[in-house]
Amino acid sequence: MITYRTGISTEAPAEQNALDFLFAFGDVGSNGVGRWIDLSHKFERGLSPLVGLLDLEGASLEAHLAQVGIGFETLGYDLIIASGVSKSQAEKKSWEDRVRAVTSVTTSVLPFSEDHFVDLLRRNYRAVKHADNARPDWQEMHLAYRQSIQVFRAWVAIRPGVPKKGLTAALDHDNVTLHIREIQRVLGQSDRQGGAAS
């Protein structure tokens, strides 16, 4: 899995270490790889924009956030359909409902609040998408993007069968999470926040 590389960095890539990966082959085995291949076909439309973030090197943070918003909305819609909801009912679901369809399986492992994350991503995605909205704060956009990457990485890890206990520990000490905490510190937020500073 290559989702770790979806971070934005202006620094030269450092030598990789164990904290760069959330799980190893031994955590999921060949059955887990098979499940991931099945998922990548079943949810290809939503996964493509998210995995496609890897091809946006040099693009603006706004471009990254726009693609994240599209990917989460589409993946969430497909997950709602897969849960047995009719297409006509799924079409009535809000953008937030669709994002929550993705986060519903990651809530217990995330090192930040799901509710704050959904609100933060919604505000920043809409601000980027609609020209008549005020330009969002750069640090908040960066936080929304980094948290989106962690949600997606956690979702990718859970679906093939990575044990949640080990995943929670890996996410808590992960380099992307450490960067998230630094942004939260600058914004005056705690780990369990993701929206406006308190």
Kindly describe this structure.
The chain has helices at residues 25-42, 44-51, 61-82, 87-91, 95-103, 114-129, 138-158, 164-172, 175-187. It has 198 residues and is mainly alpha-helical. The chain has one domain (27-187). The model is unreliable at 1-19 and 194-198 (pLDDT under 50).
Order of helices and strands: HHHHHHHHH
Number of strands: 0
| Gyration radius over CA | 16 Å
Number of helices: 9
Strand pairing plus helix content: what structural class?
mainly alpha
Beta-strand fraction estimate: under 5%
| Cα distance spanning the termini | 36 Å
Provide the residue-averaged pLDDT: 82
Largest sheet: none
Task: Please sum up the structure shown.
Helix content is about 60%, strand content about 0%.
Question: Which tags fit this structure?
Answer:
disordered C terminus; single chain; disordered N terminus; mainly alpha; 9 helices
Helix/strand layout:
Layout (H helix, E strand, L loop, with lengths): L24 H18 L1 H8 L9 H22 L4 H5 L3 H9 L10 H16 L8 H21 L5 H9 L2 H13 L11
Helix pairs in contact: 2-3, 3-5, 3-6, 3-7, 5-6, 6-7, 7-9
